[in-house]
Design brief:
- The protein is α/β, with parallel strands linked by helices and 441 residues long.
- It folds into 2 domains: 113 residues, Urease, subunit C, domain 1; 306 residues, TIM Barrel, CATH 3.20.20.140.
- Helices cover 30% and strands 21% of the residues.
- A hairpin with a 2-residue loop joins β17 and β18.
- α5 runs parallel beside α6 and α7 runs parallel beside α8.
- The chain is globular, with a radius of gyration of 22 Å.
Length: 441
């Protein structure tokens, strides 16, 4: 019988995500699923560690696998705080009307690609991912840790209303639309329906509740400037989430939508590119998280046409100002990509993180995708499916780790080249088998 696995990474620099600096060289020992020790390289192990008879190993441990970390940097596994695991590599039509078996098959493949890019955890903000999460957690298929929202909640005519024309009005073709039956969205109007919807997604395993609070870019029926849900309706969802020990996050771009959400007790804003200074001050005063994406009109912009393209241009025009306001007012910012509908764009996940160097130092950008995002995940409280410490390389932390050839604090673009730059990807203390994937296509 084999004992607990032990892996030792020797002579490696370690990124301290709390302080935003690299130190070392160190020897880092991982036992089972956690980091057991971080010591200066070459330091002898303390006598307290030598409990195995004559072997120098604690009883029940196998001899360590030793990895040379010379010239390399050990960083925490990356976290994407705005991900859609079911929708990153499929066409929009498959999401709205396609066969669910095909959707799930694509999601399984995409989850492996995500892990191969070094993203060991994602906060999933809408879609039928509970089954995928279970399969990953049980070891059936490789993929990141998933903090699922399940179906996002939308008002009629809101950003999450994907009904086909023949499905309106409600009841014309059955009570629920295809998207609702597939677990993509819940359409709820009024306090009672929103309360029921929030309770149902929590019942299904949501770690946080996702609401659509304003207009969107990709959706066809809601203009970008439209505010969605009243304070009372949002408070119904907030009440349900708080009763379960967790929180509500909302999709919102405009000041009015954001202010409504803050008044209702929402703890996190997604996007927010069209914010103004007064509303940014409100986020800072109320200690509200801001999950902001580096949306620009560049090679990573989701292809749009017609009215959606005009909405996209209006939205990305506010990105620089949004980051400037977040920095000026000391708002706690999380990193997320919100990648949708394109395997090529999904492969740019690390490159999207690299774009933060437009506004932040490499260390600050890396902090967002590690310790900051891990702190955001902790808002799930008792609904947190992964007890333990993420986002850091520390003794006692969960061993989600990346061994990078080089120093990302000097060259953040290394994170965009995982196949050549990552000497090792580890999740839960296990080294991930590397495959030829769509990781950087």
């Amino acid at each position: 019988m084999h004992g607990t696995s032990t892996i030792r990474i020797e002579n490696v620099r370690v990124f301290d995500s709390r302080a935003g600096v690299s130190t070392g060289p160190h020897d880092v020992e991982i036992v089972g699923s956690t980091v057991r020790s971080i010591r200066p390289s070459g330091a002898s192990r303390s006598s307290g560690d030598r409990t195995g008879a004559g072997s120098g190993l604690p009883a029940g441990e196998d001899s360590p696998t030793v990895i040379d970390g010379t010239g390399r940097t050990l960083i925490p596994g990356l976290i994407d705080a705005h991900w859609h695991a079911a929708f990153t590599e499929i066409a929009p039509t498959a999401m709205m009307s396609g066969d669910s078996g095909y959707l799930f098959a694509k999601a399984v493949v995409a989850a492996d690609h995500t892990l191969q890019r070094g993203f060991t955890t994602v906060r999933d903000l809408g879609g039928p991912t509970h089954g995928l999460k279970r399969a990953i957690d049980e070891g059936v298929t490789p993929g990141p840790r998933i903090y699922p929202s399940g179906a996002f909640i939308s008002q009629s005519g809101g950003h999450g209303d994907f009904r086909m024309p023949h499905e309106v009005p409600r009841g014309a073709a059955g009570h629920l639309s295809h998207a609702e039956l597939a677990g993509v969205a819940v359409i709820a109007d009024g306090e009672a329906e929103v309360l029921r919807a929030a309770r149902e997604v929590l019942r299904q395993g949501a770690t946080q509740v996702k609401l659509m609070a304003g207009g969107g870019v990709a959706s066809h029926y809601d203009p970008l400037d439209v505010s969605q849900y009243t304070v009372a309706e949002m408070r119904a969802a907030v009440s349900a989430a708080e009763n379960w020990g967790t929180y509500v996050t909302v999709h919102a771009y405009t000041p009015r939508a954001i202010r409504t959400a803050v008044e209702a007790g929402v703890r996190c804003i997604e996007h927010g590119q069209l914010i103004d200074e007064e509303t940014a001050e409100l986020l800072a005063e109320n200690d509200v998280w801001w999950c902001l994406q580096p949306f620009l009109d560049d090679e990573d912009a989701i292809p749009m046409s017609g009215p959606s393209r005009q909405k996209q241009l209006a939205m990305v025009s506010g990105t620089d100002r949004a980051y400037e306001l977040a920095i000026a007012h000391g708002i706690t910012v999380a990193f997320g990509t919100d990648t949708l509908f394109d395997p090529q764009l999904a492969g740019r996940q690390g490159a999207q993180l690299g774009k933060l160097s437009r506004w932040y130092t490499p260390a600050q950008a890396l902090q967002q995708a590690t310790i900051r995002n891990a702190e955001l995940l902790q808002l799930s409280g008792e609904r947190n499916p992964y007890p333990g410490v993420l986002g850091v390389v520390e003794e006692g932390a969960l061993a989600d780790l990346l061994l990078v050839d080089g120093d990302p604090l000097c060259d953040l673009s290394l994170l965009a080249r995982p196949e050549e730059a990552f000497a090792m990807i580890m999740k839960d203390g296990r080294i991930i088998e590397r495959t030829r994937t769509a990781a950087t296509r």
